[in-house]
Amino acid sequence: MPDPLRDDIRLLGGLLGTILKETGGKSLLDDVERLRELTIRAYGGDAAALDEAYELACSFPLERAEEVARAFTCYFHLANLAEEYHRVRVLREREQGASAGAAMDDSIPQAFTQLAEEIGREEALRRLQDIEFRPVLTAHPTEARRRAVSRSVRRISTLLAERDTLHPGGTSRAENERRLLAEIDVLWRTSPIRAAKPTVIDEVKTAVGVFDSTLFQTFPEVYRRLDDWLLGGDAGRTAPVARPFVRLGTWIGGDRDGNPNVTSEITRQAVALASEHVLTALEDQARAVGRKLTLAQQGTPASSALQALWAKQRQLSDVVTAAAAAESPDEPHRAVLLVIADRIGATRRRDADLAYGAPEQLEADLQVVQDSLLEAGATRAAYGDLQRLIWQVQTFGFHLAEIEVRQHSQVHAAALAEIEEKGVHSPDLSDRTREVLDTFRALGAVQRRFGERAARRYIVSFTQQPEHLAAVYRLAELAFEGTGEAPVIDAIPLFETFDDLQRSVEMLEAMLELPQVQRRLAENGRRVEVMLGYSDSSKDVGPVAATLALHSAQARIAEWAQRHDITLTLFHGRGGSLGRGGGPANRALLAQPPHSVDGRFKLTEQGEVILARYGDPTIAARHIEQVAAATLLASAPSVERRNVEATERFTDVAEALDASSRTRFHELVRSEGFPQWFAQVTPLEEVGLLPIGSRPAKRGLSVNSLDDLRAIPWVFSWSQARINLAGWYGLGTAMREFGDVERLRAAYREWPLFTTLLDNVEMSIAKTDERIAEKYLELGDRDDLARLVLDELRLTREQVLAVTGNPWPLANRRVLGRAVQLRSPYVDALSLLQVRALRALRTEGGSEGKVDGASKDRWQHLLLLTVNGVSAGLQNTG
């Protein structure tokens, strides 16, 4: 471990120990240390130590067990923030150490250089200016950490970073340590579990909080750094080459599939809240830029266009312009920009006399100011902070993020059937059908206020026939019947199950026959978006077959789009965990089939992934750069050629792994009684009790049906049981049955898709623990199923390591391997406490005595504390 990181973790761990001793006495710290030492010994191979650790965990009174669980959870929060800050430290050092003009690995400049070598600089520049990266924030309940805890962690992180600028031995360092102790004390005393489920608006506030803290400034920072590299010494004094390529989307407040808490009124509120934040940010930025433009008329005269703009502003309000003129004597550019800031504020307040009607009007005014500065020769003022503001307007508009609606195809079908029977204006329509119509009216209201860019994408879950898309257009017409004011909508098919992925091109062919789709293609330049669901396909056929099916579907859809002269955007519904399409997005991009990217990449960013990728400005900028670089490079001739040739060369491998892994997966999940056993040996039911999201964990049925279980609790529960089955099950058997290890090694070296698959499985296996898993599986009464799981785990580990050549999982990935090894013994401690709580809740009459009423509540509380802690330790949930 690098010395700075080791020092940070030791410091924070020691300060936590001080707080534990102050609040719980030396006995609490001693209990934590005893359990920690035993799990470390057990992780090192001492089997007796694991039994001793479990006995110790079972010996704690309930109150002490809760305190110990909270102590380990606090430790994980501190270790996580130390690692995150060290990552920031390394990124900054790397940038400072890079020679002038040098490009970092996985950066846009590096990708551009390679692409230019292959296709020429001019064509590479055209592609660079056309790339699109669309991260879509979702409120899928996978962030187990409370917002209060996140804020506390952020404050501690700031204090830790402060230490790098202090001088050792001074009073300032002592003061820093005192403040750290105070903040860690707050973290310790803050309940890690929410008292109630967050509302949808709470989830919106969490997302716009990330915008406020990082995204508003980080996006233009990425553009600026790219421009600096492209223009060199001319940067900041000539027109920028970089164009805004990030467009933020959101499902928070729009995704109503299975979430009855998302209503048309909530959608309107979500958009209004986001608009409030972006307009506030734009107003503050415009005012700050304006106040710095203290360029006198004598040396920097106003252009005729700027004078005309000032005259127009005076007509709008004598009061506002008089105040700006008084504040900016003989400084025309400053005066005009201060009025622009006031007009942005009026837009936020909905003051019709001063408000802008659209962001394009604001951008036009800013362009007038920039052009005037250029005419006067003030190029640095024109292309400095003012350019940054223009980029922010172009990126965020007045809406911040495009809100996307998602609803299940069956809901639309039922609504149409009811309207056909009763009439659209019937007072007898059900509440659900009224809500469907009101959703379209809400979209119309959003578009009227903010324009098409703010809300036009409508995702249809479980799209299985063209009528499912036609229903969206028909319902929009019915909602505005007779008014001619229906909103512009692009209905987007979502293919989720294995069968739907197989039939995707057939469905898309039929979709082209719809007159509404033909009309939209004529209007939008023949652009089509198709969404691919990673979660349900993995739960449907297992992680290996799902990965291969998704890759095959993308290749066929890309070929379909080329055949019909369609500009395609594939929307990847990826989760944070490997069982839901997670893993490094940039590496996955470079393994995609030809023309399935073509400079456009869109994906969901869910739960804990949002804060992990966008919570810190330095990490956010690095993530955006890496994804944009991979988006640019994915269509390089060498990359496309490598992917095509490897896919063709290893077709036999793909077919064999697909068939064998699917058979093995179905052998397990289709066993009689599997759903009930799954609920018995994992905290599935209790995960549903954890108040981490507004969306229900299940679609309505019991655990007698896995079909109705959402993918998040499916992944979350296996993760908690230290098995991670959703990320690897079936691969070991498939590789053994294929038999040719040398060919598999060749595939690992030469086939990017297989490389990514095995690397992700290896990461998933590194977070499993067979010894701990056995204790969970003992909670069930199905030795046959437990044996299937454990045998497949051992086999998958053995087969994967035989192909990758690593002596143990992640042996060749030093940073990630270190992080997993650092955490595992501490996660074990929480897992043992969780097994104890599960055993009490599952047996009812076991060694813990009868569990009911208040006693059951206490055990559930302990269980939820451990769920929260294990999530922090493994750094992922669902």
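That was protein one. Protein two is written in the same sequence-then-structure order:
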Amino acid sequence: MREPTPTEAVDLVGRFEAGQEMPERMRADVRDLGALLGQVLRESGSPGLFEDVERLRIATIQAYTQESPEAFARASAIADSFTVARADEVARAFTCYFHLANLAEEHQRVRSLRERDGRPGSRDAADTVATAFARLSEEVGPDTALQRLQDLRFHPVFTAHPTEARRRAVSASIRRLAALLVERDETAHGGAGERRVSRRILEEVDTLWRTAPLRPEKPSPTDEVRSIMAVFDETLFTTVPAVYRAVDDALQGDESGHRAPLVRSFVRVGSWVGGDRDGNPFVTAAATQTAAGIASDHVLRGLERACERIGRSLTLDAVSTTPSAALLALREQLAAADEDAAAEIVKRSPAEAHRIVVLLLARKIAATRLGDADLAYREPDELLADLRVVQDSLVEAGAARQAYGELQHLVWQVETYGFHLAELEVRQHSAVHARVLAELDAGGEPGEQAGEVLDVFRAIAAIQRRHGLRAAGRYIVSFTQSAQDLENVHRLARYAAGPDGTPPVLDVIPLFETFADLQAAPGILAEIVEHPAFAERLAATGRRLEVMLGYSDSSKDVGPVAATLALYTAQAQIAEWADREGIRLTLFHGRGGALGRGGGPANSAILAQPPHSVDGRFKLTEQGEVIFARYGEPEIARRHIDQVAAAVLLASAPSIEERNRSSAERYADVAATMDAASRARFAELVEAPGFAPWFATVTPMEEVGLLALGSRPARRGLSVESLADLRAIPWVFAWTQARINLAGWFGLGTALEAVGDLERLQAGYREWPLLRTMIDNVGMSLAKTDERIAREYLALGDRDDLAALVRDEMALTRGWVVRITGGTGLLSHKPVLQRAVKLRSPYVDALSLLQLRALRALRADPDADPELQRLLLLSVSGVAAGLQNTG
């Protein structure tokens, strides 16, 4: 097949871009950023690089739009023709393009959110806390709805799972570009300001190109903690109170900020970063204490700065704003403890008592951070009490706007983050606890592993003493298979404290991960709550209990369809048991970014949960690229938190609970058929002799472990002869890289075929939220697959039977999903998402072809050119950027 002429190439690219129907301003951003990258490649790349990138780009677009074997073969031939050094540069160029295209799309989302917020009636958006409250009020009455709003809890937990393929340096460059795009939107066109911004954008694109895309080495747990801190510093600290304010504005209208808010702080942030030691030998007791210290330092600095800023603005003299007796007493108390500072502040503001007090409170926060025992707060409740004295005094003096304006934001920040920022959670495997206890019960000096396990409990106790009980205390037991697995944690804590010591306060959380464990969960819970340590803790917390559900391993265990159904059943049974026992249950969802790990839109998943399984409380893991995608940009973070919190509030509406209950009953026979058929089909694949080494051959599974993504190893220790010990993240990541995405859809086609009744399945898609969510997520997963590319990866192995099984199931699943959802193809009912996938697909194809070229050479000769290994890792990073998810 001949190469298109320059005129034909321009026409081809133009028609392809026009067919994506993207907003004109986004199209302009993509075009401008792409042109700047082209300029950088000409100026900074090696001779001929730009032309080679264009040749491959045009060839992959032609292959994607024409869908002819000849066009695909020509694109493959171009990728294979490059020297390894040139292929390296081309891979970097396409990866840069994805970063810029993702940025343009994010910028359009931010632009749309800001425009929506500026329009009259924008408060009536369908998926906000305010509209969820209005709907709930109609069903249960305004008083009950208000009580549920004030009891609302959304608890994201940031994890260090290694799924963020970008370096921090790359992420930082992208964030600087994002700020420049905003500045360009706000700059007058044609003036010196626009030229300055354009010059800076070009400079930043050049910086992005010149920045090495791969980390030189794996990050340490401390590095991972600091990465998470960047999200807090740049976004979350100010975004979360802004969400509360937006909800209060919607509920109170013009009175918001003039009287006490109706909204209570409903976000709590958790972290596994520095605490999750399941299979990660680098997370030690010392690392856990370091993580807690770093987080506390960041939040106390934030609170100190906010308090200083507010104090400087409270220039209200005693004549216009008479201080209350309680405020004057607080001023005297603070001045007596910090005489020199008080004298200096009073000298500048002698008649501004509120200003004096708030500035002295900032000094106490600083002393807390620095560990000055004479001046420091012991716990955040003491600071909240002082801030409320200031608020009450302002209200009494008629200065309600000062009381409930920025000062209220500070109150919300203290309530949300305390002095610890994120509640650090520890996780360890149940088998480790059992081994250590056996060793300790046998007597003698503890070995190295036992000593480290005991040190963890001592570290938790030290964190609680230093930063308060909220700073640490949740202890998650991976692979919980019995009540004894949970009781073991309390036994170890008592061993660590010694006969005369006091163990830390612990909330021990079972994590049910496999199919069998999910089925056994209700019985295990019924047994464990009778154990004395658990019963005592339940009584102390008002019978609150957390239970964690693992999406990743259950999906790897029985396939995504059976795992989804098993998780729903387990939640329903656990919720029914908790309701009978009078236990306030919080289900903790171990969801991931990728669909094979329970990913997908969280709000639709929440509204598909069983009755009473949410009840106004939702906790989930957020990790890797998902953290930065959802929380890295303030406007998007606000929108995400608002959407999820709205779904959590609305999930307890009687109409939603009745819909989910009745539809689950009505389609129980469909669920049973799908479960059995999908499990059998999944077992046919993964239990086939030789499957594990075949999987490692046809995907870059082994190579993913070499990419410096995170501190945690990719496997718990076994070889690729066994999948049992392979972590779910590389399982998903490897299938994603091969453009097969098997972990997100395999078995659904067979399950739907077993039901066979298209009309009933279409009705189920309309009426049964669980089925709709499952099929929509699979549609998204399949849209990111590519059958042509997948065939090339599958051909790397020598098992035509397994390759055919995968291809047949992919075609069967695709056909059923399209028929059930209607339209002409995948995602045709979701045009925005379809556009995003189609815009990237041919460019991802280019990187996949380069990855295949490297994989073929490495499979043929493991001792081939070491630069091929680098090319492979570069392509892995680029495909992750293009698909916008990894593991």
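Residues 120-124, 594-599, 710-720 have pLDDT under 50 and may be disordered. Keep this in mind for the problem set.
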